[in-house]
Specification:
This protein is mostly helical. It has one domain (3-79). It has four helices and no strands.
């Protein structure tokens, strides 16, 4: 996994709130994102990196959404955004 690819995933998940947080919050959120990313099993990482339009199985689609929600929870827990 390259840093650029990880940053791209971060921006995909948090794109709707990045313009609402300051640089300090952004750095803190990214660090928490990386920590959670490092805890994920390999198959969950692969699923998160798969573009939504390439997922044809309903169960995988919903699982990807649940994983993204788990990551969004980091921002809610951090600063209420």
């Amino acid at each position: 996994m390259t840093d650029a690819r990880l940053k791209e995933l971060y921006e995909r998940i948090y794109g709707s709130i990045l313009n609402k947080i300051n640089e300090h919050q952004n750095r803190k959120l990214f660090a928490r994102f990386v920590d959670l990313w490092n805890e994920l099993p390999k198959h969950d990482k692969k699923l998160l990196l798969t573009p939504m339009e390439d997922i044809y199985d309903d169960n995988l689609f919903w699982k990807q959404g649940a994983l993204e929600s788990k990551f969004m929870g980091l921002s809610i827990n951090q600063h209420g955004t």
